[in-house]
Amino acid sequence: MIILYSSLFKKKFLKLPRQIQDKFADRVKIFMGDQASEILRNHKLHGRLEGYFAFSITGDYRVIYRKMGIHVIKFVDIGTHNQVY
Prior knowledge:
Elements: E1 2-5, H1 7-14, H2 18-33, E2 43-44, E3 53-56, E4 61-69, E5 72-80, H3 81-84
Parallel strand pairs: 1-5
Antiparallel strand pairs: 2-3, 3-4, 4-5
């Protein structure tokens, strides 16, 4: 699987607390192995974010992504629930 990162994602990621960045790295490993893992709470988005998906890093932090192809994912946003929705 190839993971791409939007410029918005990169900018917001660098501003996150270190512990959230580390937790993100753990979740990405799980995501790459099993996108349906319960721990991720991976789901389709609706409304203005239709066509995008999200998974949880912690109880409040989320990653918004889009499937660009069969084996290509683009992370487009990261932040708390209120920041990304």
